[in-house]
Predict the 3D structure of the following.
Amino acid sequence: VLSSMRRTFVIFLTLLLLWTLVAELNHALTPLRVYLFVPGLFVVYAAFMLPWNVGVSASLLGGLLCDATTPVWFGTHLLLFAGAHAVLFHLRNRLPREDTATRVLATLLANLAIFLLFSFIQIGASPVPAAAWIRLIADLVCSQIFLALLAPWFFSLQTRALVLTHAGLRDNLA
């Protein structure tokens, strides 16, 4: 139990770091009117590399973090992250999940799915929904490029954080 809690906490700390870096980058990109959306990174490693209880806990905590700082209905990110985590977790035994390219591709697909679901949920709040899609597509393209570049580093960071804290990945294949 203590080992599971430690792994959840370590992965959550890496997600907190990711959230902080992306928030700062989004702030810097404000003059360019670009917003990076990266929820795929919040769920893929946890779903592919950790046992169910540890991974889903980390994904849910990441969802709560995103909900707490975004002007949406509380629980929106939590539910989207939980759904993505469940789908990825059930697919992980059919994929070469230790392969970085597979994880990057899964991140891009998860990010696309969450982006589309999130956009459809929130588009009604826009004063001109049809005009918002052009900006959303531009943000999606920028986000996907950013994810493809950042994901290998972030997966390595998460693995290294588990090793450095002796939380390890020894029984994660269960």
